[in-house]
Write a structure and sequence with these properties.
Length: 541
């Protein structure tokens, strides 16, 4: 084994073993979730993100060039990114890929530069970077390697230096973030990232960690649209063939993604051109797929070619989805919640939420699939906002992410939505609306914990107010009563309870009647949500 260089086949093995290691350890990383609520998913999100990268490189031949492997890794991670930790990981890998794009092999110094570029990309992706997280761990490990790398440093030693400093920084994360210290855990994202590097070191040494990357966790949408396109009336289909493929660009051809997009827009509509400088995914509706393929063949090699006749699909499915100016996409889980969103005008629901964060590709497919000129997205979860924003940056359509962090905020935003108004006006109205509602959640503790002055025991019922554990009790009614006492003030007009799938209608109605009797000047509403993990979601307006 050449211990001084990383070549294409070596990086391919490193990605696969890194993903395998992370898959094995994801449950332990999930358990580092700061709060003792049943929604720890950092390890799962990072594992699914890297599994997408692993599937991309696994498709390449054993003798693939370094640049080819790096680009496949970055593209796979970008499209498969889930949750904030997954998006940050995808940016770390994306920056790494760009740094090695001009070389055929990587020595220790180039490796250090690649880590440095990855850190730069990750910090740029986060609007307000927080220290004491995966960002800090990656940055300090990168800085240490850059200081110590020299001509005699081999790859194994470089990775060991990186890991040694990474774990030192990880151990200090509780001192940087009080919430970690209080919970008695280190940062989950940082742990996940170092687990990846550990796995990559195993792969570089020629050892194996077997992981199953064949299963893609796709969430089932509220509607079905072949090829990520809603099918509309045959007569209204201007361009007949939905054409998709991947271009691996020829190094000698100097054509930009923008130039490709300009050509495609002359040949059809619904144009999507995304990817890296050298691997580009194409999507276009056209009447001349042959001309599109001929043009792109002159740019590079074509892969995964898929052409669907949309007129024939329309006949078979007999579907009709009229085009509209502004469409709305919502992330949601729970039968009742989904129905509420659809009744309020949501065009497309991505099934997801706590422990089920959709990927960048899932959200991008929904944006491109909805038959609307412009799109508004409601993530309804703070851990989905970053992936949604990343999807918007890749979209061929104008789109905005309303930063709703909870289901009640998403519902409040929809109350302010007006399909007759333009995208920007609706975005501002909906963004203002989410600040007019307070959200409370009732769930249970999955482990013992100390939170502030509260000692929490496994199985206890917790009341979470605006994202903060505020009340702990022995039963649901006790906790909700305390929430009401704390939250209902003289200016509260409406309280809405959405009960989860573990609560019966009779139980919910009995609870509501009892609580409402104490607050005769407040209107109370009850709806079936069907959400998992959370007994009740409560909206206070």
């Amino acid at each position: 084994m050449n211990t001084t260089k990383i070549k294409g086949y070596t990086l391919r093995a490193m990605v696969l073993t890194g993903a395998g290691k992370l898959e094995m350890e994801k449950s332990k990383i999930d358990s580092l979730n700061v709060f003792p609520v049943p929604d720890g998913d950092t390890g799962t999100n990072m594992s699914l993100t890297l599994a997408s990268a692993a599937r991309a490189v696994e498709k390449l031949s054993q003798d693939a060039e370094l640049k080819e492997v790096a680009e496949a890794m970055a593209y796979g991670a970008l499209m498969g990114a889930r949750g904030n930790s997954g998006v940050i990981l995808s940016q770390l890998l994306g920056g790494f890929s760009k740094a090695v794009s001009e070389v055929n092999e990587v020595d220790a110094f180039t490796l250090a530069k690649a880590f440095e570029k990855g850190v730069e990309a990750a910090y740029k992706a986060v609007v307000k970077p927080v220290e004491g997280t995966i960002l800090t761990v990656a940055r300090e490990a990168s800085e240490k390697l850059m200081k110590e790398v020299c001509d005699n440093t081999d790859i194994v030693k470089a990775l060991e230096i990186f890991l040694e400093q990474g774990y030192k920084t990880l151990a200090m994360t509780p001192e940087m973030l009080p919430v970690l210290k209080q919970a008695g855990v280190v940062d989950a994202g940082g742990q996940g990232f170092l687990t990846v590097i550990e796995g990559m070191l195993v792969g570089f040494k020629g050892e194996k960690i077997i992981g199953d990357f064949t299963r893609e966790d796709k969430y089932q949408p509220s509607h079905s649209f072949p090829g990520n396109d809603f099918i509309i009336n045959e007569e209204s289909i201007k361009f007949q063939y939905c054409t998709e493929f991947i271009i691996r660009k020829n190094k000698a051809i100097n054509v930009t993604a923008d130039e490709i997009k300009i050509f495609l827009e002359k040949k059809g509509d619904c144009v999507l051109v995304v990817g890296t400088d050298d691997i580009i995914k194409i999507h276009v509706h056209t009447n001349n797929p042959g001309l599109v393929l001929e043009y792109c063949c002159n740019i590079g090699s074509l892969y995964n070619i898929k052409i669907d006749n949309m007129r024939e699909q329309s006949k078979e499915l007999q579907l009709s989805f009229p085009n509209k100016n502004l469409g709305v996409i919502s992330v949601s889980t729970g039968e009742g919640i989904n129905e509420i969103f659809k009744s309020l005008g949501v065009d497309y629901i991505i099934t997801g939420g706590q422990t089920m964060n959709p990927s960048t590709e899932d959200i991008l497919a929904a944006i491109e699939g909805v038959n609307a000129n412009e799109i508004i997205i409601l993530p309804n979860n703070k851990n989905i906002i970053l992936a949604a924003q990343q999807a918007v940056s890749l979209s061929s359509k104008p789109a905005k992410v309303v930063t709703s962090k909870t289901i009640p905020q998403g519902i409040s935003a929809l109350m302010a939505f007006n399909g007759e108004l333009d995208l920007l006006t609706n975005y501002k109205r909906m963004q203002d609306a989410i600040n007019q509602v307070k959200t409370c959640e009732v769930t249970y503790a999955v482990r013992d914990a100390q939170h502030g002055e509260m000692s929490i025991t496994t199985g206890q019922i917790m009341g979470i107010i605006e994202g903060e554990i505020s009340i702990v009790g022995e039963d649901i009614e006790e906790v909700i009563s305390k929430i009401m006492k704390k939250m209902i003030t003289t200016n509260v007009e409406l309280v809405t309870l959405y009960y989860g799938y573990e609560i019966t209608k009779e139980q919910a109605e009995k609870l509501l009647d009892k609580i409402a009797s104490f607050y005769p000047n407040v209107d109370f509403e009850l709806h079936y949500g069907g959400q998992p993990l959370y007994y009740y979601l409560i909206s206070i307006e």
